Amino acid sequence: MDRARLEAASAALNRQLGSRPAIGIVLGSGLAPLAAEVVEARRIPTSSLPGYPPSTVLGHEGVFLAGKIAERELLMLSGRIHAYEGYGLDEVVMPVRLMALAGVRTLILTNAAGGLAPEFQPGDLMLIEDHLNLQGNSPLRGPNVADWGPRFPDMTEVYSRRLRELALARAGAQGLDLRRGVYASCPGPQYETPAEIRMLRALGADAVGMSTVPEAIVARHMGLEVLAFSVISNLAAGISPTPLDHEEVVAAGLAVGPRLAALVRAIVADLPEESS
Ligand code: HPA
Description:
Layout: H1 3-17, E1 23-26, E2 39-45, E3 63-69, E4 72-78, H2 89-92, H3 94-101, E5 106-115, E6 125-133, H4 161-173, E7 179-185, H5 194-203, E8 207-209, H6 213-221, E9 225-235, H7 246-268
Parallel strand pairs: 1-4, 1-5, 5-9, 6-7, 7-8
Antiparallel strand pairs: 2-3, 3-4, 5-8, 6-9
Helix pairs in contact: 1-3, 4-7
The site of hypoxanthine has 13 residues, from strand 5, strand 8 and strand 9.
């Protein structure tokens, strides 16, 4: 993505924001109820940002919610962009770059995912500890903008150890059995075959989905601290006794939404109030 396109959208977003939220949250499938946690919320449709990728799904327009959770100013994205819609990975990560340029220093990513680890059940919440980028490409491909981050960013700790420990502590205090694992990001939109799931398991994946990893890579490129959660919406293909179904994925997100919302609220309450 060229710098001018991103900066035009960023200027439009920052004008509408009028403040510098330090926290960003991206909502996954079925997790829209988390938006109800945001108080003093203002809606900024992504269609109001020049150069922002147009939504391909009618009725699912992207919207940034600017508001507060636990007195912390934050920016929440509902309606993320997926590569399978036909976008380049540079477009997929545009919302994260916009958040970073708006002042966000801590990014919380959420998604729905299929479970591979034998102990996982649909409805579990998983803390992402590490990832496999199987998108077949990098969102950082192309000229590097040195002002945004380094050409060769380190990925030793994509998901902040400090924030993971905070999440586990807050989950424990809420009696929530937070699972932990490695998330594999595949391009989709088709779900995996049972052979692909056996391959992913052999590679070390505990959960599989079609998002999150490009966003996490770019967030690290820009020096953000990242925390990410998967809602295990279904058992992966070949492990599940039934065929996979998008409605099931969305329903699982809705069912787990309140638990994830309570956890996110407790974590956000422990983050600094100001953008550094
Ligand atoms: N595979 C890939 N993506 C998904 C799945 C899955 O089983 N469930 C929810 N998103």
